[in-house]
C-alpha cells in the first residue's frame, strides 16, 4: 500500500533550485487596502448562501502588511526561489486595457521583488492565479470571451513586464488552466462558480475557458519575446497541474488506455497547443466533437509561433489515482475521457497513504512516471512549481511536528532524483506548496499545506519541522555530480 516506503535521501544536482510557492488571494489579505479592486474571489468568498466553507480571505495571512517578515522567514530557510502571484485587481483595479493603474499596488510588488533580490531569492512570478478582476467578469464574463479577455490580459501582462521585468527573470502566465476551466466553470467549486445548478452551459463553457487561456498565453509569450526579452533576458511559460494515473486493472487494455487518455484530457488539452503548437489532442476531439472550440487561422498561427518560446514546463503535482474505463456515453459533460477515478485498484490495493485531504495520497512512483511522461511528450526542462500535502490528523502534526509531510517531501524528492539520474529527465527546481498555511480556496483554513504554521488569530508564523527538513535535505542532497542529460 506504500505505507512501508522509506525515504532514501537520494542526490540532486548541485544547481538544483528549491523554494516555496504561494498565490495572492490565498495569502495577501488587504482585500480593499490601498485601492485594490474586487476580484472574482472577493465576490465568490462572500456569496450568501456561502459557496465556500463559510470563510473568505479578506485578511488570511495578512501578507500584504507582513511581507518583509515573510521574506526574512524565507531567507532564514535558505530558499533559492519564491514563486508568488500578482493580484491583477491590485495593479489594475478594474482590470481593463483602458482602466487606470494603481501605483500603490505596483509599489507593493516592487518592494517584495526588491527585498527578494536583496536576499538573493529569485522571484518566479505568476500573472494569473485564479483572481480575475470582478469588473472584467461583469463586463464580458472574463474567460468566456476570448477576444476581450486576451486584449485585457495583454495589457496587464505588458504592465507587469515593464514595471517588474528588470528584476523578474521567470514568468508564468496562468496557474492551472485545467482547474480554471473544470473547477470554476463546470463543477462550480471555485470562482466564479459556474455549473449546471447555476444554470450555465457546462457543455461548452469549460472548453471555451481553456481555449481563452491557451490563446491568451500564446499572445503574451509572444509579446514578452518580442518587446521585453531582448532587454530583460528572462523566460516565460505556463503551469499545468495533473495527477498521474495508473490502470484500475493492470491486465485490462481498456484500463491501460483509460489511464493514458486521462493524462491527455488533463495535460495534453493544454500542453499540445501550448508546447507543440498543435491542435487539441485527437482523443479529445473524438470525445467532445464540436464542443471543443476550433482555433481560428489567426490563433493557429499564433500558437505555432509561440510554442517554441516557452522555456520550461511548470508542473504542479500532488498525487496519483487509478483510472477505470467506462463505456463511451452519449455526448455528455465528459471532462475525463470517460474514466472513473479511484484511489483503490481492482484488487482493493490503495494507491498510497492518505494525507489530510482525501484526494491527496502519497504515491511518489506516480510522480516519477509523470515527470517521464511530460519529458517524453514535450521535451522541456521541468520546474516543479508546486508539490506538497496537508499533514494528517493530530493537532501536533498540523502544527509543527509534521512527520507525515516531511516523509512526503522526502519521498517526492527521491522520485525527482530517480527521474533525473535514471530516466534522463531534466528537472531544474522544486517549489514546496506552500510557504505557509493559507486560505485553501473553498475549503477555507481547514487544510494546512504550509511548511510554516500560521496561527490565524495572532497571525504568528512558526516554521514546522518540514521547513527545516527541506532546508537541510537540500543542503545534503545537492552534489556536484553531472546530470545524465
Ligand atoms: C493547486 N486537484 O490547486 C493550486 O495551485 C493551489 O492554489 C492550491 O492551494 C493547491 O493546489 C492545493 O490544493 C489544485 O484536485 C487544486 O487535483 C485541486 C487539484 C490540484 C491542484
TrEMBL record:
Which chemical reaction does it catalyze? Hydrolysis of terminal, non-reducing beta-D-glucosyl residues with release of beta-D-glucose
Instruction: Report the GO molecular function annotations.
Output: cellobiose glucosidase activity
Q: Which UniProt keywords apply?
A: Glycosidase, Hydrolase
Entry's EC annotation = 3.2.1.21
Which residues are in coiled coils?
none
The enzyme class is: hydrolase
**Single GO biological process annotation from the record:** cellulose catabolic process
Q: Which Pfam families match?
A: Glyco_hydro_1 (PF00232)
What is the role of this chain? Plays an important role in cellulose degradation. Shows hydrolytic activity against several glycosidic compounds.
Q: Which family does it belong to?
A: Belongs to the glycosyl hydrolase 1 family.
Q: What protein name does the entry list? A: beta-glucosidase
What is the species of this protein? Diplogelasinospora grovesii
Lineage of source species: Eukaryota, Fungi, Dikarya, Ascomycota, Pezizomycotina
Amino acid at each position: 500500500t506504500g505505507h512501508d516506503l522509506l525515504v532514501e535521501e537520494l542526490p540532486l544536482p548541485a544547481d538544483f533550485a528549491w523554494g516555496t510557492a504561494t498565490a495572492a488571494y490565498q495569502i495577501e489579505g488587504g482585500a480593499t487596502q490601498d485601492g485594490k479592486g474586487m476580484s472574482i474571489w472577493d465576490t465568490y468568498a462572500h456569496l450568501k448562501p456561502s459557496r465556500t466553507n463559510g470563510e473568505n480571505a479578506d485578511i488570511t495571512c495578512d501578507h500584504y502588511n507582513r511581507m518583509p517578515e515573510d521574506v526574512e522567514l524565507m531567507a532564514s530557510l535558505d530558499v533559492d526561489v519564491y514563486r508568488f502571484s500578482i493580484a491583477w485587481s491590485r495593479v489594475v483595479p478594474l482590470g481593463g486595457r483602458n482602466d487606470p493603474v494603481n501605483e500603490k499596488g505596483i509599489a507593493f510588488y516592487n518592494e517584495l521583488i526588491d527585498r527578494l533580490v536583496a536576499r538573493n531569492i529569485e522571484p518566479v512570478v505568476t500573472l494569473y492565479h485564479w483572481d480575475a478582476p470582478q469588473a472584467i467578469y461583469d463586463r464580458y464574463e472574463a474567460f468566456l470571451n476570448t477576444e476581450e479577455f486576451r486584449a485585457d490580459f495583454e495589457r496587464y501582462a505588458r504592465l507587469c513586464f515593464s514595471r517588474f521585468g528588470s528584476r523578474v527573470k521567470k514568468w508564468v502566465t496562468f496557474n492551472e488552466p485545467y482547474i480554471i476551466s473544470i473547477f470554476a466553470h463546470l463543477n462550480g467549486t471555485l470562482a466564479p462558480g459556474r455549473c449546471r445548478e447555476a444554470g450555465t452551459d457546462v457543455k461548452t463553457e469549460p472548453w471555451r475557458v481553456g481555449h481563452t487561456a491557451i490563446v491568451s498565453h500564446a499572445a503574451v509569450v509572444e509579446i514578452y519575446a518580442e518587446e521585453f526579452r531582448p532587454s530583460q533576458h528572462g523566460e516565460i511559460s505556463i503551469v499545468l497541474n495533473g495527477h498521474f494515473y495508473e490502470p484500475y486493472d493492470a491486465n485490462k487494455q481498456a484500463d491501460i488506455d483509460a489511464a493514458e487518455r486521462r493524462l491527455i484530457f488533463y495535460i495534453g488539452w493544454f500542453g499540445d497547443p501550448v508546447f507543440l503548437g498543435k491542435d487539441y489532442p485527437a482523443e479529445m476531439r473524438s470525445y467532445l466533437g464540436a464542443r471543443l472550440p476550433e482555433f481560428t487561422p489567426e490563433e493557429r498561427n499564433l500558437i505555432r509561433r509561440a510554442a517554441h518560446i516557452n522555456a520550461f514546463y511548470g508542473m504542479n503535482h500532488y498525487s496519483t489515482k487509478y483510472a477505470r474505463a467506462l463505456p463511451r456515453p452519449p455526448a455528455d459533460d465528459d471532462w475525463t475521457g470517460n474514466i472513473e477515478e479511484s484511489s483503490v485498484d481492482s484488487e482493493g490495493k490503495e494507491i498510497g497513504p492518505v494525507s489530510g485531504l482525501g484526494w491527496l495520497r502519497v504515491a511518489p512512483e506516480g510522480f516519477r512516471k509523470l515527470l517521464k511522461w511530460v519529458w517524453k511528450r514535450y521535451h522541456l526542462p521541468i520546474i516543479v512549481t508546486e508539490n506538497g500535502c496537508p499533514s494528517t490528523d493530530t493537532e501536533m502534526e498540523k502544527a509543527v511536528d509534521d512527520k507525515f509531510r516531511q516523509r512526503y517531501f522526502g519521498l517526492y524528492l527521491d522520485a525527482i532524483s530517480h527521474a533525473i539520474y535514471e530516466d534522463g529527465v531534466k528537472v531544474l527546481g522544486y517549489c514546496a506548496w506552500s510557504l505557509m498555511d493559507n486560505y485553501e480556496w473553498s475549503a477555507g483554513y481547514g487544510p494546512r499545506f504550509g511548511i510554516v504554521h500560521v496561527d490565524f488569530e495572532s497571525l504568528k508564523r512558526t516554521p514546522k519541522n518540514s521547513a527545516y527538513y527541506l532546508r537541510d535535505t537540500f543542503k545534503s542532497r545537492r552534489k556536484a555530480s553531472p546530470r545524465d542529460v
